[in-house]
Amino acid sequence: MSAKKERRKGLVLACDGGATGLRAGLYDAAGTLFREMAAGPCNPIEHGIGHGRDMFLHLLRSCGNELPDLIAAAIAGAGRTEVRTALAWAVAEETGVRVRIADDLHPLLLANAENNSAVLAIAGTGSSVLAWDFNPYREIRIGGWGRVFGDEGSAYAVAVSALQAAARAIDGAGHPTRLAASLGRELGLDSFDGLVLFSAKARKHEIAALARIVDKLAAEGDAVAAQCIEEQALRLVEQTLAARKKLDLPSGAPVFISGGLFEGSARFREVYRHALSACCPQAEALFPPLRGHAAAFRMATLDGPLPAWITEAVAPESREDAMTERRLPAVRSIDTLSAREIVTLMTEEDAGIVPSVQKAAASLAEAVEIAAGAIRTGGRLIYVGAGTSGRLGVLDASECPATFGTHPEQVIAIIAGGERAIRESVEGAEDDTEQARADLAALQPPLHSDDVVVGITASGRTPYVRAALAEARQSGAHTVIVACNPVETDAADILVVIETGPEVVAGSTRLKAGTATKMVLNILSTGAMALNGRVYDGLMIGMRPVNVKLRKRAERIVAAIAPCRADRAKTYLAAADGNIAAAVLMARHGCDYSMAKETLARVQGNLRRALEHF
Fold it and tell me: How many Å apart are CA 610 and CA 596, to the nearest integer?
């Protein structure tokens, strides 16, 4: 957002939308509507997270000079936690506004049924049924599985069944109908082949829009078109009844109906109501009094813990304010330079990394001591990050067993998006706060007070990392944040902030920020291992000699520390099964492997202490 807007306390932008468009209203805290506006399609499954974010930005530009305190949005396609989390954080980080996002079903029931048993059937571009009951709270959602699995009872399903019926009629395998001609005329096509090409390329909402023509033909007496409408209405009734049965709802529990197909097709609406009444005489199908953005506004009034179907994102400040997002002075634009000048520019910029790390020496040393204590007491050093930051954590953790002889579960890394994210970008993973909590909760053994969790985030704000740190704190673990932008003092127990400044490619934190982060992690793990005696006189005594090069190195290490001849070092290493520290004790004191292992065990593997107290 380029223009500076003034935030107005209590102002709420309430939104409702999906595949056909985004509708919004600007409300004050008391629920008074000031202005209405609209934007394009916003279904994140159909159109993507980035497009959805852009639609919200369009709405905010329509708000004039005032910026709302909160965006509350009910969005079709946001039923999955990871999807609405990604969308909520994309909007919050771009705008700096607090965002609450839910699917398009729950807010309607909340606004109209409150804490009473009820069913909601939606028939728009897509379709779905939501039912809930209380004492205790239970809910069930039926349908709404998207175009492949049918979206039965939707405008899309009506249009698809009509296109299929038209094809059967043309082939002589179905009843005569004017569907092909009418649908083709609506689209400006002069042949059925054109309809076939259209259906192959059209988006879901473009196909669903044809339901209006099907309904018009049905009203004019086309029996095939009427059957397409009526069959989908009956399918939606089946889903409604299934939801009621699964929750064993009271016979008088209301059934709210909503969506463009219910509103635009009298035939669909009446068939649905008649079939429902035939099965449940006391269950009246009603349009909800509060609909659209008026229902979405109800989410803004919720206090305390939010229900699981709402995801809230609160960006500390807009992302564009981050130092790593800013540009270097235009005179040094990298795209205007020669290859030699690019090398000079980047090495000059990188030269400032070491001084920046040195400025954080006090907090980094504190983090080293905490990590060393975790290793010493049997705890774990756990890196958590997303993108480049996460990959750097994976790299450092993976090197520790081979370099220091640690158990693979003692230094571990968790990356947003899982193993796939090590090799490629996983869209929305860094915004998924619930997955962060789930990833930490899945650790075995569970997080405890001997563990230290290091959150790695160049921006300092990555939602996945911040959620992981919050979860770690609740579990009693120590927390450290490694960032390249300023962070709040309560972000973690220890703040390691390396202010690397703007990148030569703005926002590309794999550059200076990535280099600085790698330095910090090198210091953190190496320092923790050195304080635990996993290094002796600068030599890797915990190294595992698993190839020819490393076996030769191990022989040199044993020979240097023992001291002894290289051939004797090789013999001791063979007798110690490659354990360098044990081989040193055997060479210096003439003990066997069993005694060497026992001695090292008494001092937690610290060779220096073992040599001093043998």
Answer: 9
Q: Cα separations (Å) of 502 from 96, 110, 320, 496, 514?
A: 20, 46, 11, 18, 12
DSSP for 538-580 reads: TB-TT----SHHHHHHHHHHHHHHTT--HHHHHHHHHHTTT-H
Cα–Cα distance, 570 to 179 (Å, whole number): 86
Range of weakest confidence among 236-245, 378-387, 465-474: 465-474
Is the CA virtual torsion 438, 444, 446, 452 positive or negative?
negative
Q: How far apart are CA 91 and CA 50, in angstroms?
A: 9
Rounded CA-CA distance 42/19 in Å is 6
Q: Is 26 exposed, middle or buried (0-12, 13-18, 19+ CB in 10 A)?
A: buried
Quickly list DSSP for 502-533.
-BSSTT-TTTHHHHHHHHHHHHHHHHHHHHTT
Q: Do domains 6-104+293-313 and 118-283 have the same CATH topology?
A: yes
**Where along the chain do its domains lie?**
6-104+293-313, 118-283, 339-531, 548-612
Residues 6+ apart with CB under 8 A from 569: 554, 555, 556, 558, 559, 562, 583, 587
Q: How far apart are CA 240 and CA 342, in angstroms?
A: 64
Alpha-helical segments (H) within 33-154: 44-47, 49-61, 81-95, 106-113
pLDDT, position 331: 45
Quick one: CA torsion of 83, 86, 92, 94, rounded to 10 degrees?
-120
Catalytic residues: 399, 430
Region of residue 297 (left: phi > 0; alpha: psi -120 to 50; beta: else): alpha
459-470: per-residue pLDDT in tens?
Answer: 898 999 999 998
CATH superfamily of 339-531: Glucose-6-phosphate isomerase like protein; domain 1 (3.40.50.10490)
pTM given for the model: 0.53
Percent helix, percent strand, percent coil in the chain, to nearest 5: 50, 15, 35
Mean pLDDT to the nearest integer, 174-195: 91
Interval 130-180: pLDDT, tens: 999 987 889 999 998 877 876 899 999 999 999 999 999 999 999 999 999
Measured distance CA(379)–CA(448) in Å, rounded: 8
Q: Strands 70-75, 12-17: parallel, antiparallel or unpaired by DSSP?
A: parallel
Other beta carbons less than 10 A from residue 1's beta carbon: 14
- Residue 318 or 105, more confident: 105
**Assigned CATH class of 6-104+293-313:** alpha beta
Q: How many CB atoms lie within 10 A of CB 226?
A: 19
Work out the burial of residue 444: count CB atoms within 10 Å of its CB; fewer than 13 is exposed, 13-18 middle, 19 or more buried. Answer: exposed
Q: Which of 211, 499, 205, 219 is nearest to 363 (CA)?
A: 499
Nearest to 39 by CA among 288, 212, 260, 293: 293
CATH superfamily of 118-283: ATPase, nucleotide binding domain (3.30.420.40)
217 C-beta neighbours (distance < 10 Å), count: 23
